[in-house]
TrEMBL record:
Domain of life: Bacteria
Active site: H96 (electrophile), E168 (proton acceptor)
Annotated protein name in UniProt: Triosephosphate isomerase
NCBIfam families xref list: tim (TIGR00419)
GO molecular function: triose-phosphate isomerase activity
Subcellular location field: Cytoplasm
The keyword Metal-binding belongs to this UniProt entry's keyword annotation: no
Associated pathway: Carbohydrate biosynthesis; gluconeogenesis; Carbohydrate degradation; glycolysis; D-glyceraldehyde 3-phosphate from glycerone phosphate: step 1/1
Cellular-component GO terms for this entry: cytosol
Signal peptide: none
Amino acid sequence: MRKPIIAGNWKMHKTIAEATGLAAELAAAAAALDDVEVIVAPPFTALAGVVGALPADSALRVAAQNCYCEDKGAFTGEIAPSMLVDAGCSHVILGHSERRKIFGENDALINRKVHAALAAGLNVILCIGETLEEREQERMYDVLKTQVSEGLKGLAGEQLARVVIAYEPVWAIGTGRTATSDQAEEAHSFVRGLVGGLFGQSEAEAMRILYGGSVKPENIDGLMARENIDGALVGGASLQAEDFIRIMNFARSG
Ligand SMILES: O=C(CO)COP(=O)(O)O
């Protein structure tokens, strides 16, 4: 049985005070759920504040939304994986489509980041997903195959166990247009097959694959009911406690 994960990607939202307040509310709700892993990804400026506001034994885990692939040096504006560990993060999101599209990150850079993050002791949420154009041109499977094989290139089995994949079709992000549970299940089962081919069947069976793209309290249960959907990476609906807590609770019953 794969333990579901509900993760909130706060993107470029929230002051330190707003972030710590929301995290405290979510931590209280997460404490009641031992069958769901709950993760929040505040902006860099709020990471240490959020970690500091949580009880020491908090069930809520904290992720960063990005990091660089070097441990230190002259990389103005970048954050090292070890700095995220120092701030109290357990996870980092890598390869988000906004990083790929707006900031030009490619699979080779993302793979270097994956290696650096794992080496520093972080768990990785690796985002993949096709654009609408790629789907319409029937290139979706090729795109997913490249993103998975290049993103996970060179990892050992022990490292893979600390990676979660988030399938986020770009056309569903922030658009209100969720993939149907059939579309999501089809992509997730394909991705699990890819991981199986690259690393082995038992590794693929153990891998959590999250869906992301306009997840709301209204659609989470249909997604969670599917065999290969192990949770969600939530954007907009993770920014206020009520919706995100409803999503956490649906994930548990799903
Ligand atoms: O990009 C996302 C999570 O990483 C999804 O964002 P939305 O839930 O706002 O569509």
